[in-house]
Structures are given as C-alpha cells and as structure tokens.
Amino acid sequence: VQLQASGGGSVQAGDSLRLSCAAPGFILRYYAIGWFRQAPGKEREAISCITNNSTTSYADSVRGRFTISRDNDRDTVYLQMNSLKPEDTAVYYCTANPECSGVLYWGKGTQVTVSS
Is the Cα dihedral 105, 113, 54, 24 positive or negative? Predict the structure, then answer.
C-alpha cells in the first residue's frame, strides 16, 4: 500500500496549509486515516484521526487549528492546518488502519516548515 501525503511547504506563522493523503489503487474509505508528525529531535506525535464513518479526534496541540476531513468520492483525506506556528514544523505522515487505535500502513511524509 502506497500512502502518500502531499501539500507540505514553507509558510509564515499564521498561514494555512492543506495536506492531502491518497493511495492510488487502494480504497481508503474503509479505513481510519491518521496524521502523525515528527520534528527533528522529537518523538513522533499523533495529531489527528478520522474513522471510516468520519468521527474525528485531535491532539491538544492542534485542536481548534487543524481540521481533518475525508472525501470518499476522491478517496482522499485532508488535514486543513490554520494558524500555523513554528512548533508545527515537522514531517507529516498519514496512516491507515481499520480503527484509529493503531497503524497498519504508513505513508511517505511531507515536510511542513513554519517560520516566525
């Protein structure tokens, strides 16, 4: 399974980005999709998840600023990131699993850099 996160980039604090997670040839709609991030020298952090019936959850560090959603017609999951902060700088990964508790598949990450 080739999960691919995209949409990262370099932005200023306060800006927004939207990340996408897709997997050509793989049906995401039946899976819970999670987003993780890892900053240099820090542990990997689970930041959000959406179940196959669109129940969402967020880490305290992003709640109120990030929104996860899914478009089953496009078989894509999005992470809308608003009010970005320098501490959001990290490589962001999407994952797939039958439920939000656990990871079966990891995708390639996308770099997000937020400068002050």
Answer: negative
- Residues linked to residue 33 through DSSP beta bridges, in sequence order: 50, 96
Tokens of 1: 């399974």
CA torsion sign, 51 to 55 to 75 to 14? negative
Closest CA to 13 of 87, 96, 109: 87
Check: CB of residue 46 under 8 Å from CB of residue 37. Answer: no
Task: Give 1-41 pLDDT, tens digit per residue.
Answer: 789 999 999 999 999 999 999 998 888 999 999 999 999 99
Query: What is the number of other CB atoms lying within 10 angstroms of the CB of residue 12?
Result: 10
